[in-house]
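Can't paste images in this forum, so I'm doing it all in text. The chain is below; anyone willing to post the predicted structure tokens underneath?
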Amino acid sequence: MYKKLNKKMKKINFKKVYPIFAFMLLTLGLFVSVFVFKKIEHQKVETAKDKIAQESKKVDSEIEEIKEKQISDKDVTDAKTKKEEVNKTVTEKEKEIEELKKKKEELESKVNE
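Text version of the structure:
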């Protein structure tokens, strides 16, 4: 009789322990999965930050190149305007030279008469 009671008690105790054990394993698994997911998320965030930093460096270098090109474009336009001014002054001087040659010829013709 006592042996039967002991066996029943052991079965009853195990029946009570199994759900508790299963619940403990489940909660432990939940905590571990949450921890692992947070680690993975943190790692993804870090890689995203690195990618953003690299992209911003690329964009900054492209901006610098564009600024350098703009400066060179400004230099080209300045050089063109200076060239035009020089050409104008050269044509003016050529006109003055032509006028002086005409005056010289007139004076020479007057002297010869």
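Residues 2-112 form the longest helix (111 residues). The mean pLDDT is 85.
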